[in-house]
Amino acid sequence: EVQLVESGGGMVQPGGSLRLSCAASGFTFSDTPMGWVRQAPGKGSEWVSSIDGSNGRTLYADSVKGRFTISRDNAKNMLYLQLNSLKLEDTGLYSCTRGWGGGDYRGQGTQVTVSS
Question: CA-CA distance, 91 to 42, in Å (whole number)?
């Protein structure tokens, strides 16, 4: 059974930082591209970033490029998203996904709230 469990969300002021984590199980993590999506209140899901399984190639949405960093630890089956220079519009539920883009599995998500 595929499981994706996120953690690390919270409330932060504009300009602050957070590190999100996603624990993956139930599939061969090291071979699988992974990513993050987010959903702001009252809006649809937005793809944020993806990372390849083996070569570590990364992709970012223009809205987060230069501020967010995706990474993974294949030995621990862990996916991460470092969020820096957070803005009010980064508020939302962040979920990790299996595969490119929106993926075929998505975790329950962890809430990020940016507020002054």
Answer: 12
| Contacts within 8 Å (CB) and 24+ apart, 37-42 | 37/94, 37/95, 37/97, 37/102, 37/103, 37/106, 38/90, 38/92, 38/93, 38/94, 38/95, 38/112, 39/92, 39/93, 39/95, 39/109, 40/89, 40/91, 40/92, 41/91, 41/92
Q: Decide: helix, strand or coil at residue 114.
A: strand
Q: What's the pLDDT score for residue 101? A: 83
pLDDT tens digit sequence for 29-60: 999 999 999 999 899 999 999 999 988 899 99
